[in-house]
Amino acid sequence: MSTRDATASAAAREEVLGRLRQAHAAAPPGDWPYAQLTRDYREPEERTAAGLDRSARLELLVDRLVDYKAEVRECAPAEVAATVRARLDARGARRVGVAAGLPEREALTAGDGVEWLVESADDPLPVDVLDGVDAVVTGSAVAVALTGTIVLDASADQGRRAFTLVPDHHVCVVREADVVHGVGEALRRLDTTRPLTWVSGPSATSDIELDRVEGVHGPRVLDVVVVRDS
Amino acid sequence: MTVSPTRAGTVDLGMPGLPPVAPREGFLRADRPFPAAARDALADPQLRRNLGHATRTIRGKRAAVVGELPHWEELREAGRQLKTHTMASLENYLVQLEQAVTARGGVVHWARDAAEANRIVTDLVRAEGADEVVKVKSMATQEIGLNEALEAAGITATETDLAELIVQLGHDRPSHILVPAIHRNRTEIRDIFLAEMGDAPADLTDEPAALAAAARQHLRRKFLSAKVAISGANFAVAEDGTLAVVESEGNGRMCLTLPETLITVMGIEKVVPRAEDLEVFLQLLPRSSTGERMNPYTSMWTGVTPGDGPQRFHLVLLDNGRSRVLADEHGRDALNCIRCSACLNVCPVYERAGGHAYGSVYPGPIGAVLSPQLTGVEDNASLPYASSLCGACYDACPVKIDIPSMLVHLRAEHVEEHRRQSRGPDAESVAMRLASWVMSHPRRWAVAARAGRLGRLLRGRRGTIGALPGPVIGSWTGARDLPAPPQQTFRDWWRGQQEDA
């Protein structure tokens, strides 16, 4: 910002803040201390969450994912690489990006018939390369059973945001330990200062006659591999 | 969160003691009154069919997903209290937000009104050396007419939300907060794409999936090559500077992730105190707006993240009349709106008249209370009357904004304003004064009531009185039938009963 812009901006700032003081002087706001705001939704939320055991919670997640048109496969920890590979083969993916921090990366890339490109913070794949891959494989930070939502937080097993955005097919590994019941629980596990992407099904639009159609700009195919603790 | 108490450079706090309303730039004011615009809309059967179909669909979906949450009412109350609390400390939270965004590598700008916001954004785009930008759907930038301002500066802004793209290609105006092309059906959309898109496939059908695919292909190059993106914000967290955009298609993610520079224009009322508060709004918003448990994509980012996403981030905080709304204790809850559009979808007036009839970019019940407050009621005088006060909007609102009471308040304010401005008494007030004189004396009333029976002469075939000429009677009977007076007045009947006994 040039000095003149900075001066103009400071004047605008003072005036907007002054107007807010002026508004509150004209119509004093009531007393609403933050600590006393009611959160009566939490108790029933927690009760519902506590009523579901781990298996029921996973079932709910799968049900909600399928309802929003994600393809879901469940497997044991030892079966992740094979399950992911089966999903890639089912779609004929031959050029595939994988996040460097995915624990199953080595097992996965040992298989042949696929050209593997590894995404890492030190060596991110350029956007035009991402535009040419058939699919990407990542982990996830948290999953919300109640809404069928997977949250990505750009950790090493997920890659930066563009990695899971530009390619048309996303294979996402969700682990049982990362599955929570509700939105609040998910937020408490996340660091909101990281770049977060909350994904619920493949990209969709309701813009034509308010009918939901899957597949616009984001990945049109979302494959979720849910890993049950053995 | 302390605020420096300096008052230097603040506005005059003397009379009239209110912040200014939004100046004329932008799209908050109608070209003509609601009744005239609504009459045109009602004469368009295709529009009514499109609106009826779309609002019916969304009402059903919303009811189903709201019904899934047993604690919905508790969430609404929490949302209401959080918003009310935030508006009561808005100055503090904005300063806190500014500090957090700045600390994480963003640049915060303050805009008093639409013209100032447009100038800030135009200068920022020019400073990047860009002559085109991609845009995420945003009500704030619609409100200030940013696309038009950029165009005047030689900068092409491409709307990337499917519905906004339909509106832009159709040289049209948005008619709904969530689905701005709700007034168009699939066949009309196909025709717009074929005529205006340039690269639409010649054999494009009107299947929604085919239309979405055409939009994907049309916009993909733009996303991958854009230098600058412009977005709005659904929420901004004061404590840590996190911005959130809630969307469906992935166009938001494209804009928020791929360009080098991101400019976000946000109304000052969008701030929330803490990240944990998002647990309330991320449950209320998608279920109320698209009728989904969760929208397909929500992006959150904080300032600049090295190596991930735009490396330059500007946040423009927009007032444009909002501080004025805050100064009205009966109207300020309109600032609590999270732009879900549930009130539009349940409103019998919106369902028939459509969004264009409201003139402002904010249509429907919330627009009928927000627009007149942002501009001053005289500039949107017909909007507070664009409602039957049925109360469906209040029931649907996820943050419990009492829109019907606010409409009544604004009607009273309009009448007051009208009285202040008009010189002599108008026909209505003369009639009311005459009625008061008649009704304040029993004998005068008895004579008048008996004389009223003469009204039976005006009866139509259905036993009611239709449209009549004259200033007051004319405007009253123009819109509704009057029952014909009975043959006998109550007083005469009563006297008869007493004599018979």
From TrEMBL, chain A:
<dbReference type="Pfam" id="PF02589">
    <property type="entry name" value="LUD_dom"/>
</dbReference>
<protein>
    <submittedName>
        <fullName>Lactate utilization protein C</fullName>
    </submittedName>
</protein>
<dbReference type="InterPro" id="IPR003741">
    <property type="entry name" value="LUD_dom"/>
</dbReference>
<dbReference type="InterPro" id="IPR037171">
    <property type="entry name" value="NagB/RpiA_transferase-like"/>
</dbReference>
<dbReference type="InterPro" id="IPR024185">
    <property type="entry name" value="FTHF_cligase-like_sf"/>
</dbReference>
<feature type="domain" description="LUD">
    <location>
        <begin position="132"/>
        <end position="227"/>
    </location>
</feature>
From TrEMBL, chain B:
<dbReference type="InterPro" id="IPR017896">
    <property type="entry name" value="4Fe4S_Fe-S-bd"/>
</dbReference>
<dbReference type="Pfam" id="PF13183">
    <property type="entry name" value="Fer4_8"/>
</dbReference>
<dbReference type="InterPro" id="IPR037171">
    <property type="entry name" value="NagB/RpiA_transferase-like"/>
</dbReference>
<keyword id="KW-0813">Transport</keyword>
<dbReference type="InterPro" id="IPR004452">
    <property type="entry name" value="LutB/LldF"/>
</dbReference>
<dbReference type="InterPro" id="IPR003741">
    <property type="entry name" value="LUD_dom"/>
</dbReference>
<keyword id="KW-0479">Metal-binding</keyword>
<keyword id="KW-0411">Iron-sulfur</keyword>
<feature type="domain" description="Lactate utilization protein B C-terminal">
    <location>
        <begin position="420"/>
        <end position="497"/>
    </location>
</feature>
<dbReference type="InterPro" id="IPR009051">
    <property type="entry name" value="Helical_ferredxn"/>
</dbReference>
<dbReference type="GO" id="GO:0046872">
    <property type="term" value="F:metal ion binding"/>
</dbReference>
<dbReference type="InterPro" id="IPR024569">
    <property type="entry name" value="LutB_C"/>
</dbReference>
<dbReference type="GO" id="GO:0051539">
    <property type="term" value="F:4 iron, 4 sulfur cluster binding"/>
</dbReference>
<dbReference type="GO" id="GO:0006089">
    <property type="term" value="P:lactate metabolic process"/>
</dbReference>
<dbReference type="Pfam" id="PF02589">
    <property type="entry name" value="LUD_dom"/>
</dbReference>
<feature type="domain" description="LUD">
    <location>
        <begin position="96"/>
        <end position="317"/>
    </location>
</feature>
<dbReference type="InterPro" id="IPR017900">
    <property type="entry name" value="4Fe4S_Fe_S_CS"/>
</dbReference>
<protein>
    <submittedName>
        <fullName>Iron-sulfur cluster-binding protein</fullName>
    </submittedName>
</protein>
<keyword id="KW-0004">4Fe-4S</keyword>
<dbReference type="Pfam" id="PF11870">
    <property type="entry name" value="LutB_C"/>
</dbReference>
<keyword id="KW-0677">Repeat</keyword>
<keyword id="KW-0408">Iron</keyword>
